[in-house]
Amino acid sequence: MAEVEVKKKGKNTAKLGAVIVLILSALVFIPVGGSSILESFKANKMTVVFGKYKGKKIEYKAGSEFANAVTTLATKYQQYGYDVNSLTNSIFEEAFQGYVENLFYRDQLNKAGYSVSKEAINRDMVPYFSDANGNFSKKIYNEANQASKDELRTAIEKELLQERFTNDLFGNDYSNDRRFLGLKVSHKEAQFVANMDTEKHSFLVTSFDTSDFPKEEVKSFIRGNSNLFDKYNLSAVTLTSQSELQALTKQILANEITFEDAVSQKSEKLFTDEDGNLSSSYYFQLRSTLANIDDLDKLTSLSAGEYSEVLQTVRGYTLFKCNGAKSAANVEDDAVLDAALTYIKANERGVIENYYLGLANKFITDASSMPDGYLEKYDESGAVPVDENDPAIAKRIANGDESIVKISGFENACLKHGISSDEALAFPINYGNNGLLTTMADGNGVLSSLPSSEKALQAMFALKANQISSPFVLGDKVVVAKCIGIQKDEAVENTSYSSAIYFSEKSNSETAVLSSPDLEDNLYGAIIEMNLR
After folding, report:
1. DSSP letters of 87-117?
2. Which of the 8 DSSP states describes residue 370?
3. Which DSSP letter does residue 62 get?
4. 309 CB contacts (<8 Å, ≥6 apart)?
């Protein structure tokens, strides 16, 4: 019996977030005299427009503010030990997002009439002109190039503007729940979230894989819907222009051009192979090819050698020619079976689900009535059922033979139905796998999509101890669960809750800024353009 892993909420969230914030906040802080350190960043050789903010171009070119932001971010990554040349696209994406945020921040502060005082700028400039003892040196300051000092002053002013905006909104210390500025987090709120993590349920789960729909069931569906899988022997000439195709049809009917020549010389072959044969000619495919469902009878009633009128199709217009009689659906033809299965999966998903729901209900009947049993392990990968009433087995059980293990009626029923069971270790309701609570990591297992399914969570957490659920659909599986335990843990307040909320709100703000109607986003187009040069 496999186990589904449960992950405790992480404690390193704040540290990782701190690194991210440091990198992003550095975007306005331009290293004096800095140049691109990325081999593929050709700032001196190209100008690429990454978008516009309020009509003003965001340009990547030598000396532009955005190019400096890219350089600064790349430098930061390099300082953290990354190979920046392998992260070119990611660095451009982060730099663009951070730069747009800064433009938005400045815009909002300008509207509010806020400006940075000269004293604040001077205070932040001091460390750049200090001697070995950390004291401000007038000599070093006077010897510095004036253009460089002006550039540094401008950069510090932008940094302080961004700092003012983010501090006012989100606080000046994301790790402190009593921070002086910005967003505050209530202690009771943190306790409430901690209490959400206390009640945890554990389960046995089994499933039926709907991707392996039996061939006999496909045949049964074909027999009940045989007309859908009749195959028609048709050729076609297709053109985008209705008038051009109508003129070409007149030529064909007047024997001025053969149908075959029209196919090879004129047809755009939107639905056909090179010889004009229709690529998708089952009845259900014809139904989805025609723009007007009422034209279907006109097409399927054609006799051998007969042409249709020009019909509108989902792409352009088509002249069909009937080459011969249709082929009735043959349930022994693999091609027909494959086409039918494709149709069922796309249009009749309920047929598959209902079949497996029926199997699941039969399983539940057995799981609810079958007694516990025993298995004897014969190697690391397998085991066989054994009869506890066999005197030899009973003696081994009594003597505590570890190679014989007890299984529940649920697991016994799994053996009968040829399916496996997994144990999901205790976890709370956590819709969306929120990192503030215990999360479940099921990889590609049965419950991999459980955190995103409200109905499945409701079905499982409504169960009392030892109760078996009704079957429910989860992804491509029909699942049955049995609650095998409910525990109530002590509430433990997450010490990083305050910083988690900070980063969550900041992320929401960033998303809102990047969705602003003032932004024309050409990020990915610009990256493609640069990679192609």
Report:
1. -HHHHHHHHHHHHHHHHHHHHHHHHHT----
2. P
3. T
4. 298
The residue behind tokens 């139905």 is 417
CA distance 479 to 467: 14
Burial tier of 466 (Cβ tally within 10 Å: 0-12, 13-18, 19+): exposed
Most confident range (mean pLDDT) of 24-33, 55-64, 436-445 is 55-64
pLDDT digits (tens, 9 = 90+) for 368-396: 998 877 767 655 556 677 767 778 777 77
Q: How many DSSP H helices and E strands does the chain contain?
A: 19, 15
How is residue 157 written in tokens? 């002013």
Angle, alpha carbons 136-141-142 (nearest 5°)? 135
Cα–Cα distance for residue pair 321/100, rounded to 1 Å: 58
pLDDT for residue 21: 38
pLDDT of residue 439: 85
Question: In terms of C-beta density within 10 A (0-12 exposed, 13-18 middle, 19 or more buried), how is residue 388 classed?
Answer: middle
Burial of residue 121, with CB atoms counted within 10 A of its CB: 0-12 exposed, 13-18 middle, 19 or more buried = middle
DSSP annotation of 307 reads B
Burial of 460 (0-12, 13-18, 19+ CB in 10 A): buried
Tokens of 498: 């305050």
State residue 33's pLDDT score: 36
